[in-house]
Write a structure and sequence with these properties.
It contains four helices and six strands; from the N terminus they run E-E-E-H-H-H-E-E-E-H. By secondary structure, the chain is an alpha+beta fold. A hairpin with a 2-residue loop joins strand 5 and strand 6 (111-121). Helix 1 packs across helix 3 (65-80).
């Protein structure tokens, strides 16, 4: 699991985002926000829509396709090129309160589907570490 800060509303509204994979050879991407003190619940598909992902991914993939691709790209990029302060958790037990799921219909960034929602880390110490990823103003 990769944990990174996400600037979701310019200029200073951050959330803590997590990305991991599951399924057969990691074909399912899982992107979620982690609860942190002072952060409100974040609608990730709505956040993705505000970034106009259809300009990059088009709209031929059906409703939510471009938003799903944008979210996968954010997570995949955060793992591929870690931002300062990101956290890589190699063996973390987690659960996800699923808010949305999308079948992509084709492979994007190594994934065929996406689950989006709110992550919970089972280990309280890892949850505290993840909360420290949040930038301070």
């Amino acid at each position: 699991m990769t944990v990174l800060p996400l600037l979701h509303t310019w200029p200073d509204r951050y959330a803590v985002l997590a990305y991991t994979t599951t399924g057969h050879v990691g074909d399912t991407a899982v992107v979620g926000h982690l609860p942190t003190p002072g952060a409100s619940r974040l609608g990730l598909m709505e956040t993705a829509a505000r970034h106009q992902p259809t300009r990059l991914y088009g709209s031929s993939g059906g409703p939510g396709f471009a938003e799903a691709c944008w979210l996968i790209c954010v997570g995949w990029s955060g793992r591929s090129v870690p931002k300062p302060g990101s956290l890589e958790l190699r063996c973390a037990d987690w659960s996800l309160e699923v808010e949305d799921s999308r079948e992509l219909g084709r492979n994007m960034y190594g994934h065929d589907r996406l689950h989006v929602g709110r992550f919970s880390l089972i280990d309280p110490q890892l949850a505290r570490q993840a909360g420290e990823v949040m930038p301070t103003a």
